Every structure is written in structure tokens, then in C-alpha cells.
Amino acid sequence: MGNDDKMIIHKPELKLFLTDKMYPETKTEAEHYDLENEYEKTKQNKNHAVLLMLLALVALVVGISYGITAFIAYQNKKIDVDIDVFADTNLIELFDMVSRTEDSLASAQSEKAHLEMLRQAELQEIEAKKEGELYALQSMRLTRAAQNQQEKEIQGVYEASLLAVQESYDRDLAVLEKSIEEYRKQLETLDSSRVKQAQEQQVALDFQRHIYEMEKVQLQEKYELIIQDLREKIEEQQRLAYERQMASIDSLSSDYQRLVALLDPIVEDPRLDEIKTEIAEFIETRAFYADDYRISAKNEVYNHLLEKIEHAYASIDYLAEIVSAIPYENTIPSILETIESIYYVIGIELAYFSSNEIASLQKSLDTVDADYEIQIAALEANYQKILEDQRISFQNQLADQKEIYENKLIAQANDFDKIVEDSRMYLLGLERELSKNKTYIEALEKENRDLKENQKTIETASESSIFIELEEEIIQTPIE
Distances from the Cα of 228 to the Cαs of 104, 118, 222, 237, 448, in angstroms? Predict the structure, then answer.
């Protein structure tokens, strides 16, 4: 049959391991393989000797371990302990403690010396900075008061910096000093006899200690050389910095002096002396007051101009005070003073001349005003007389004209009455004509009404005849 080569699987989970075909295509019979039977066959292949060998090996290892442990414990019980060995150990520990304390003490002292060196270097730097600033200040062309003020400021900054550096380093040095004192007390509290014994047995106890000390000495010498080299370099750098600072100050001083020579030069000019002498002859005090040159309250424009000039001079004085605050020491102050004096000379002279001229003009104007008032009074009197004569003449002319106009008005009134009468007669004639026309119009209207009535009658008769004719035609027509 077609399904002979198929396995009969009684348990579905076995299909995970077996395929449908278990024999080649050439075989005619299937060889069945039962997994449960195979499992039963493998149970019969167990070897109990292997398990026994493993148990024996474990027992042997445990026995050997126990025997070795017991032998070591027995041998340890037979060892003799000598207390001198521990004494040597205590001496070594004591010597190590002394060595460590001495090393710490030396390190603290070295650090203290290093801090003192740094403090001294910073103090020297601050001192050099102060000396440089004072040297630069001496090169400046300042007044004595300004120079003293600058020196006080430099000294104040120097003292503040000095105090800050000292306070900063004093705190660290106090801590190191306290540590050094503690290390010294620790060395004093150690047993000096045992320390001496440890020192006597130093070579015998530990040759390595000697090597350590040699290395420590070498390192100490090495670092001391490094510190000395650094100290020399710092000193050399400070010296070079001081020299560079002095050179910079000299350069700045020369530039400053050259700039001062440009800004505050010494002017030697004979014309300048002449101008100063001329100005000194013109004016002694520099002041301008508008009230000194006022003439009267009527001259508002001139008084306003004087006030503007006074305000301008106040501005000049303010600017002159600002410029005079600049510490010029050569020719510039006298030139500025001369310029200010020239300004005042110009203003005062012009104001004085203007006030005199205006006063003279005002006097002439007052005289002219008086003459003008007299002439005006005479003219007004003459004008009043002329006006009165003209008034009388005009009144006479008005009376004559009034009479002429009245006569003309009477003649015109008569003419107007005649025109009105003629117009009334003409209107009456028109009224009669209108009455005649009205009668004629009424006759025409009556005739027109009669014509309309006749026309309606004719139209009605013609329509009736037409209807009669139509009826007759309808009657006469045969019905088909």
C-alpha cells in the first residue's frame, strides 16, 4: 500500500525527533525504531565502579589535607620564641618613627624657608615697583603739591600691598611654625636611650636604612640645588625686570618731556611781550557788568545785547578756570591770561563807546522830539482852523445841493404821477379789450361744444346703420 513506509507514532512528542521515512526507497519493509525500548536498553549499561573510584579519591584528598595540617601544627608547637627578636623589632619601629619625624621636621623647615624666600621676593618686587613709580614721578614736570599728593598715593598703595603680602604669608608661616614645634616635641618625647641604642645598631639592623639615608641626602642636595637655581633665576628675573622697568620709565619720561615740551612750550617772542604790556595799560581788572553801561529802560535791544555780552563773558571766565586748572608752568598761562584780557578790552571798549554814542544820540533825539512836538502842535492848530473852514464851506455846499435835489425830486414826482395816470388809463383800455375778447371766446367755446355734440350724433347714427346692414347680410346668407 502507499503508506507502508510510514512510521506508526503512538506519542506525538516523538515527532520532534523522527521523520516520516526511516528506510531507503529500495527497501520493501520498514524497520521500526522504538525510542522507549532503546532507553530501557541504556539503563542496563551502568558501571558502578566509576562511582566508587570517585568516592575513594575524595576520601584520600581529605585525609592528606588533615595530615599536613596536623603536622604543621605540631611543628609550630615545638618552635622556641625569643623576646629579643621583638625588642629588635621595636627598636627598628622606634628608629623609623624618629626618622619619619626628622624627615617631617626637615620638610617643614624647608617649606618654611621656601615661603620666606617667596615672601622676600614679593616684598622686593613691591619695593621695586614703588621705587620705579617714585622714579617716574620725579621725571614728571608736576607742581610740588601735585607731586606730594602722588607720592602719598604711591606710598599708600605700597603699604597696603606690603601689609597684604605679609598677612598672607604670615598665616602659612604660622601654620608651619606650629608644625615644626610639634615635630620637635615629638622628638623630645621619644625614649632617648632606646633611640641611641637603635642608632648604634643601625648598621647591624638594616643596611637598607643607610642606603635610604644616602638617597634622601642626594634628593635633598638635588632639591636644594634646584631651589638655589630657582632663587638665582628669580633674583636675575627681578634684576632684569627692574632694569626693564627703569628703561621703560626713562623712555616714558623722555616721551613725556617731549610731549610736555609740545603741550607746554616756552615761547620767546618780543611781540608777545609787547601785547602783554599794551593790554596791561588798557585794563587792570577783568570784569564786565551790564548795569554799568545801561542808559535807560527804553533801549530794550541795547540792554538785551549787554546782557548777552555779560553772559558770554561769564562763559569765558568758566572756560578760563577749566584751562587754568591744567598745570601749565611755562608761557601758556600768561598767554591765556592775555587772551582773556583782550576779550575784556574789546567788550569794555565797545560797550563804553556804544553807551556814549547812544547817550549822545538819545540827547539829540530828545531835542528833535521836542521840536517835533512844537511843530506837531502848530500843525494841529492850523489843521483845526482849516477843518473848521472846510466844514462851513461844506455845509453851505450841502444846503445848495439839498435845495437843487429837492426841486429835482418835486419835478420827478410830478412826472411820475403823470406816468402813473397814463398807465392807469392804458390799463382800463386793456381791461375793456379783455372784456370784449372774453365774450368772443365764450361764443367760440359754445360753438365748439355744439360741433362736438353734432359729431357724436353723426358717429352714433353711422354705427347703428352699420349694425343694421350686418344683421341683414347675416339673415340673407343661406346656411350650408
Answer: 21, 12, 10, 14, 162
